[in-house]
Structure formats: structure tokens, C-alpha cells
Amino acid sequence: MTTSDQITTVVICVIAVLVVGAVPFALLGRSIGQSKNAQVLGFWLGLLLGPLGLVITLFSDGRIPCPFCGDKINGKPEICKSCQTRFRWDGDTCTYYPPKESSKS
Ligand SMILES: [Zn+2]
Question: Residue 79: phi, psi to the nearest 5?
């Protein structure tokens, strides 16, 4: 085995460890981000930055505020849990219908 063969083997091993080691962080980052609509961000941060990416994901928030009450909504719900505003989604465009006062009684 020549020196360049050994260097190649070491480089391949280092890359393999980095790749295999990054996958659990990527999956963990995705599950951390899931509750805050930041799963794609969490996946990439975990993959590229490892533990640091997970910390950044913890502080990330991909949720958008409810247009009526301002409470954070996750994903594309049909109704706001806080104020019962109804949403109709057309792709990423949202039409919302504030709760009727009469329906509260
Ligand atoms: Zn709301």
C-alpha cells in the first residue's frame, strides 16, 4: 500500500464518518422542527451543522401568526385553535373567515 493509497483511505473514512454521523442529526433536526413548521430547516441545519444546527432549530420558528388573533399556527390548519378563525388554503395563499360573534353564544 502506497502513501497516497493510505491518504485516500483516510479521506474516505473521514467523509463516511461525517456523512453517517450527520444523518441522525438531520433526522433529529427535522423532528425538532416539525412542531414549529421548520422541519426542512431543521433537517438541513442538523445535516450541515450537527449539534449546533439542532440548537439553531430549537430557536427557529417557521409558523405564521393567525391573521385574526396573532396566535402562531402550525402548517395549514382548517381552523385557528385560539380564536376559531377558519382558513381556506389555495396553495400557500390563505383566505380566512373570522369567527362569527353570534356563534359564540
Ligand atoms: Zn386565531
Answer: -150, 145
Alpha-helical (H) ranges within the chain are: 3-34, 39-49, 51-58
What are 47-79's pLDDT values in tens digits? 999 999 999 999 999 888 888 899 998 888 899
Q: What angle do CA 87, 90, 91 make, to 5 degrees?
A: 120
Q: How far is Cα 67 from Cα 59, in angstroms, rounded to an integer?
A: 22
Ligand 1 mean position, distance from CA 89 (Å): 15
DSSP 8-state code for residue 79: B
Cell numbers given for 2:
502506497
CA 98 to chain centre: 28
Cα-to-centroid distance, 93 and ligand 1 (Å): 16
Q: Where are the domains of the chain?
A: 1-62, 63-105
What's the pTM?
0.65
